[in-house]
């Protein structure tokens, strides 16, 4: 059969790349080819004795099936040179998998080592002949790296002889804690929250990339959008950023992706060029039975929930999204339009979204206030002096407009939440509260905390500017001390009287 197909293609002068593509598809479907040449060809992942042991799986309960998959997975890791030292996979009361210490681990110890051959990295994906047209057009995708790795996971899953089958078998079957998969009741709790728009934008991004994939990899038309969504969520929530020989890339690292995130983490991870593999070392002594955490990076709970499906308790990084619309009724907007486009690639009628925090020294907050300041500016002679990331304050008159505008926008957002304080207290006191709804409420509480910070800041600043002549020295110093960073920026203007406004 294969010879006749090839002969037919050659006789019709079909290009070699297409021939190889079809050849790979045929062989993968019939289970005659393993893509990974680094694995020994005479070593089958599913040994005959393992196959025999699994023949009664249809009668086994789900937990037993999972345990068998995990056992095979660990055997597979050891078989190809992984090191797993004094740790094991365990379960929380809610059946979430975690990594714990099976005995005392001293600081600086090697916890885990995964050789390079067990990683699924971007270079493996880009070498796949099926994806060459997509690689050529990757700029058309919203998130090419995550998409590539998602496609590779789907590619491996379609091949029953994939060398990564033990790893694929232990990947999550669903992502019900991710907002992408929330039901209508759960999503309703977000009503009024700017985070709901983030979820919607993310869905549109995924749908867009799926269409691009089907355009340039038509062989994947047999993959449904739901399957693609599962694979993209798997990719986004489980891959690591790797520095291999000075080149930053991304990839799946089996077992390492079971470590949970915590700000106070005990495991340091990285890639060793010398050892040719991924490692996790202990940063401190770890007691027996304790869960071992690593860091996914400094991320707020919005990003953790959207992309990882969980919220970090006591997260010091709190944010709230707020939009600034570029309206055509701002003063001198025709002169400002080109500058705004250079800064944010936005035109009149579009919105710039900011992830605000309660630290005015953070660049995002500076940019937010500065854009409003620029939009409110009515003095044509100072427009060219504005810069995207530098606070340039020319008059208290304009500054007063800025903070009145911010107060109006913040109050509008606070009023838009559908869940009131009474409902919030009722939900939070419910011992059987659905975890997804609880996460919704935590997000909203954090948003309201940031908004109230800006509301207080607005009230204080407006009061200070409007009442310079009437404030006694102690009260004025109290205002300035509370928001020292901001008031340092306008200190050269604070000697103005109300007559100067």
Summarize the structure.
The chain is 46% helix and 12% strand. The chain is α+β, with helices and mostly antiparallel strands and 501 residues long. Helix 1 packs antiparallel against helix 2 (16-30) and helix 7 crosses helix 11 (225-238).
Assembly type:
single chain
Query: If helices are DSSP runs of H or I spanning 4 or more residues, what is the number of helices?
Result: 19
**Shape call:** globular
**What is Rg?**
28 Å
Reading side by side through the largest sheet, how are the strands ordered?
A: 1-4-10-9
Uncertain spans: 1-24, 26-37, 41-60, 495-501
Largest sheet: 4 strands, antiparallel
Helix content range: 40-55%
Q: Overall mean pLDDT score?
A: 84
Strand count: 13
Termini, distance in Å? Answer: 87 Å
Strand content: 5-15%
Structural class by helix and strand composition? alpha+beta
Structural key phrases:
501 residues; three-stranded antiparallel β-sheet; 19 helices; disordered N terminus; disordered C terminus
How are the secondary structure elements laid out?
Layout: H1 2-11, H2 16-30, H3 48-53, H4 62-79, E1 83-84, E2 87-91, E3 97-101, E4 110-115, E5 120-121, H5 122-126, H6 132-136, H7 144-158, H8 165-168, H9 184-188, H10 195-216, H11 225-238, E6 240-244, E7 247-252, E8 260-261, E9 267-272, E10 277-282, E11 293-294, H12 301-308, E12 320-325, H13 333-344, E13 351-356, H14 363-376, H15 396-416, H16 421-428, H17 435-466, H18 473-482, H19 484-489
């Amino acid at each position: 059969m294969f010879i006749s197909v090839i002969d037919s293609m050659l006789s019709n002068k079909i290009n070699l790349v297409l021939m190889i593509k079809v050849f790979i598809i045929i062989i993968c479907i019939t289970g005659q080819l393993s893509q990974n040449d680094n694995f020994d060809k005479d070593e089958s992942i599913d040994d005959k004795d393992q196959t025999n042991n699994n023949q009664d799986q249809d009668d086994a309960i789900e937990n037993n099936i999972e345990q068998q998959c995990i056992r095979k997975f660990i055997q597979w890791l050891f078989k190809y040179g992984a090191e797993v030292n004094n740790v094991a996979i365990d379960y929380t009361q809610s059946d979430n998998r975690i990594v714990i210490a099976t005995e005392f681990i001293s600081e600086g110890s090697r916890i885990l080592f995964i050789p390079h051959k067990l990683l699924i990295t971007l270079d493996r994906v880009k070498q796949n002949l099926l994806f060459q047209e997509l690689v050529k057009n990757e700029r058309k995708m919203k998130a090419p790296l995550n998409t590539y790795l998602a496609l590779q996971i789907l590619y491996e899953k379609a091949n029953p002889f994939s060398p990564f089958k033990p790893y694929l078998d232990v990947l999550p079957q669903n992502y019900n804690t991710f907002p992408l998969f929330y039901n209508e009741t759960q999503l309703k709790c977000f009503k009024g929250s700017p985070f709901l728009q983030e979820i919607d934008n993310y869905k549109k991004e995924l749908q867009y990339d799926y269409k691009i994939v089907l355009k340039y990899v038509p062989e994947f038309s047999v993959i449904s959008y739901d399957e693609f969504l599962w694979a993209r969520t798997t990719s986004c929530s489980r891959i690591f950023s790797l520095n291999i020989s000075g080149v930053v890339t991304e990839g799946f690292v089996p077992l390492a992706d079971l470590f949970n995130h915590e700000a106070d983490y005990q495991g340091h991870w990285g890639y060793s060029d010398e050892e040719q593999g991924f490692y996790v070392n202990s940063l401190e002594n770890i007691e027996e039975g304790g869960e071992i955490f690593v860091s996914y990076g400094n991320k707020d709970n919005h990003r953790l929930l959207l992309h990882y499906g969980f919220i970090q308790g006591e997260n010091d990084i709190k944010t709230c999204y707020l939009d600034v619309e570029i309206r055509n009724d701002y003063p001198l907007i025709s002169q400002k339009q080109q500058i705004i486009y250079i800064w944010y690639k936005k035109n009149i009628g579009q919105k710039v979204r900011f992830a605000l925090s309660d630290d005015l020294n953070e660049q995002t907050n500076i940019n937010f206030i500065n854009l409003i300041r620029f939009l409110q500016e009515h003095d044509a002679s100072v427009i060219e002096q504005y810069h995207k990331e530098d606070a340039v304050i020319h008059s208290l008159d304009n500054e007063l407009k800025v903070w009145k505008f911010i107060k109006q926008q913040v109050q509008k957002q606070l009023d838009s939440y559908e869940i009131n304080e009474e409902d919030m207290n009722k939900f939070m006191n419910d011992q059987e509260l659905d975890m997804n709804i609880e996460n919704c409420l935590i997000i909203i509480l954090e948003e309201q905390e940031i908004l109230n910070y800006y509301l207080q800041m607005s009230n204080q600043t407006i009061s200070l500017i409007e009442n310079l002549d009437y404030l006694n020295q102690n009260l004025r110093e109290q205002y300035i001390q509370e928001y020292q960073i901001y008031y340092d920026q306008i200190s050269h203007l604070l000697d103005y009287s109300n007559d100067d406004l």
